[in-house]
Design goal:
Elements (H helix, E strand, L loop, with lengths): L7 H4 L16 H12 L3 E4 L4 H13 L4 E5 L6 H13 L4 E5 L5 H8 L3 H4 L1 H16 L5 E3 L16 E4 L4 E4 L7 H10 L50 E2 L1
Helix pairs in contact: 3-8
Bound molecules: iron/sulfur cluster.
Subcellular location: Cytoplasm
Pathway: Sulfur metabolism; hydrogen sulfide biosynthesis; sulfite from sulfate
Catalytic activity: [thioredoxin]-disulfide + sulfite + AMP + 2 H(+) = adenosine 5'-phosphosulfate + [thioredoxin]-dithiol
Length: 243
């Protein structure tokens, strides 16, 4: 695959969605290599430390061992997630992993908005605890990396390698768009990567404790997120993306 075709400036006229790379990693390493060569130090990987996250961390470490990685630490994550981050830090000591906190503590949020905001107004809660911190983390960054895969949900089915991100005034790179869930786990097992223990308890997608349950038998892999609420995304990946 010609890396020029991945250029953001060309992507609208290039049918990236029709590209089907045939290498074992489905283009992921090539896309990452292009990303760091094109955008250099101003690339941030916003990692949730899910299964796709640890695959991307391993791939990124092969290209840029001191890459900038941000975890949006809402103060509401499972202990298993924090345990995994500690293991990743040990395995990849040169990576620059930052746990980005919201401006408001949970107590301050309760005082200003009432308790359990995630029940009353989850969009506002996500804005305070995820979107605003990512906005701050991406200040000065020209590109950010995300582990979105097309098969995860309908809302992600048209994601491209390179997406103009109107929400964060940046470019969003998604190297794993063609990976299946099976591809992700094959890579994890083949490379003996640490992963979140909750994945073995039917949590394919893991976020904050109040908004994460095991996946339903009939739903997609994100069916355990915001169950019972009219919400499927935290707002980091909105339809404002040009895809
Ligand atoms: Fe709040 Fe839930 Fe969003 Fe976490 S996922 S920031 S708890 S609404």
């Amino acid at each position: 695959m010609d890396t020029d075709v991945l250029s953001y400036h060309n992507f609208k006229s290039s049918p990236l969605t029709d590209l089907h790379p045939t290498d074992d990693l489905k283009g992921a390493l090539l896309v990452l290599d292009w990303t760091y060569k094109t955008y250099g130090e101003s690339v941030v990987y916003a990692c949730s430390f899910g299964a796709e996250g640890i695959v991307l961390i391993d791939l990124i470490s092969k290209i840029k061992e001191d890459a900038n990685i941000v975890f949006l630490d809402t103060d509401l994550h499972f202990q298993e997630t924090y345990d995994l981050i500690d293991k990743v830090k040990l395995r990849y000591p040169k990576l620059q992993i930052e746990l980005k906190k919201p401006e408001l503590s949970l107590e301050e949020q309760s005082t200003q908005y009432g308790s359990a905001l995630w029940k009353k107004d989850p969009n506002q809660c996500c804005y305070i605890r995820k979107i605003k911190p990512l906005e701050n983390a991406l200040d000065g960054a020209t590109a950010w990396i995300s582990g979105l895969r097309r098969e995860q949900s309908l809302s992600r089915s048209k994601t491209n390698y390179v997406n103009k991100d109107e929400r964060f005034k940046s470019i969003k790179i998604c190297p794993l768009i063609y990976w299946t869930w099976k591809d992700v786990w094959s890579y994890i097992q083949l490379n003996n990567l640490d992963y979140n223990d909750l994945h073995d308890k039917n949590y394919p997608s893991i976020g904050c404790i109040p908004c994460t349950t095991p996946a339903s038998e009939t739903g997609d892999q994100r069916s355990g997120r915001w169950q019972g609420l009219n919400k499927t995304e935290c707002g980091l990946h909105t339809k404002s993306d040009s895809q």
